[in-house]
Amino acid sequence: MTATLNIGLARASLETKLFFRQRDAVIFTFSFPIILLVLFGSIFEGDLEGTGITVAQLYSAGLIGAGVMGVAFQNLAIGIAIDRDDGTLKRLAGTPMPRAAYFVGKLVSSLVLAAIEVALLLAVAVFLFGLELPTDVTRWVTLVWVLTLGLAGAALLGIAVSNLPRNAKSASAVVSMPYVLLQFISGVYIPFTELPSWLNDVAAIFPLKWMCQGLRSVFLGDAGAALELTGSYELPKVALVLGLWLVGGLVLCLTTFRWTNRGES
Q1: Cα distance between residue 207 and residue 238, in whole Å
Q2: Which domain holds residue 213?
Q3: Would residue 261 count as lying in a domain?
């Protein structure tokens, strides 16, 4: 176990270095949610329903969740699909390296990138739009477990979804479409109150909705609860659903993951 962890951490260092060598990927990954936050925060002004919460602050919480999901789900799924297509996975599977170390490396690297993403978005939200950081320990603890469960569940889902693209060329299109759709129905861009009930029900199946809801509880406080469909952040339910996605994602990975493209031995 110790050897697997050590090798996994070495893989994480390698994965992170390789990511930062891809200048286009670095710029897009970190700048895209920031650009959206600045645009939406600048276009939509004013308080929401007399809560004292601005539209920009509401978007801040949602885009932090979407940014973490993008790093953990989208980048991971596309990256693994590329590794599978160019033969990297097949070569690694034939080495003495424990297979689990590959996934440890991917998950830890995603954690590092997500931490950077969150820090950048928080800096923009605090300095440009007056988002207040938590002032009590309870909300900081909530931030940690929401991000940890959300990132882990999204990463495992990304690993499982990496099986869907037939090759590296189709990976971006296959993975990006559900990610973009989830953002629109999960309260990132459009308030739940503006969506038909059946779309709210669909969004409730997936982790992004609950991750964003948990983050709103951290950054918007008690006043923001009035903006939720139920008038409450439902944190126990947030923990339950994200925990179920963690377990379900692990099961999907264990039962469906392939080290080679379809049709290859």
Answers
A1: 9
A2: 2-256
A3: no
